[in-house]
Amino acid sequence: PRALESGRRPALAQPAGDAVAGKPLYAVCAACHGAQAEGNPALHAPKLSGQGDWYLQRQLKSYKQGARGTHAKDVFGKTMAPMAATLADDTAISNVSAYIKTLPDKPAPTTVKGNANAGKGRYASSCAACHGLTGQGIQALNAPALKGMSDWYLVTQLKNFKQGIRGAHPKDMYGPQMTLMSKVLGDEKAINDLV
């Protein structure tokens, strides 16, 4: 509290990234995720624009540290891990995330067929407390935005959590809670309805 009163940042706060410095770093990312970070399902690259920069930073660090993209069955995660390695350090990660934050946040196209009315109750009872009533994400709960993100990617990640492909690595501090929550989804229809 004293640090906040004096205008200083708390010790755990990360310095803001430099979007101008991040723009050339994003060129590598754009090859798969698109020039506007809109995503590309054909390359299994999700939409990044509109996602919290804190979450993008955490995921890039997880790939660099081996907490993501190392499971034998995580084919697309294994593709992302070497891409994250092109970012030299935390400053580069902050910078590229700051650049992505400047890109327009247009909702990803709907590709998953499901019954939204059937998924609404499950979302309210199982997801909204962490991810927010509208799927906006809540940083204080370490829950990323879901609304407007690539629906096919959300389906893939829920299945990965459910099957232990994601969230089981000992270095993944946040994945186990999603692994647990994914267990409430009985089958593919339940996942599609929820998404």
Characterize the quaternary organization of these chains.
single chain
| Low-pLDDT residue spans | 1-11
- Tally of helical segments: 10
Fraction of residues in H or I helices:
40-55%
How do the helices and strands follow one another from N- to C-terminus?
A: HHHHHHHHHH
Query: Overall pLDDT, averaged?
Result: 92
Which overall shape is indicated by the principal axes computed on the Cα atoms? globular
Please describe the biggest sheet, giving its number of strands, its sense, and whether it closes into a barrel.
Answer: none
Rg from Cα? 17 Å
Structural class: mainly alpha
Distance between the termini: 39 Å
Please report which band the strand proportion falls in: under 5%, 5-15%, 15-25%, 25-35%, 35-45% or over 45%: under 5%
Give the tally of β-strands.
Answer: 0
Architecture overview:
With 195 residues, the protein is mainly alpha-helical. It contains ten helices and no strands. It has helices spanning 2-5, 19-33, 53-65, 75-84, 90-101, 116-126, 128-131, 151-163, 175-182, 188-194. Helix 2 (19-33) crosses helix 5 (90-101), helix 3 (53-65) packs across helix 4 (75-84) and helix 6 (116-126) packs across helix 10 (188-194). The longest helix has 15 residues, at 19-33. The protein is globular and about 45 Å long. The chain starts with a helix and ends with a helix. Mean pLDDT is 92; it is low at 1-11.
Overview features:
single chain; 195 residues; mainly alpha; 10 helices; globular; disordered N terminus
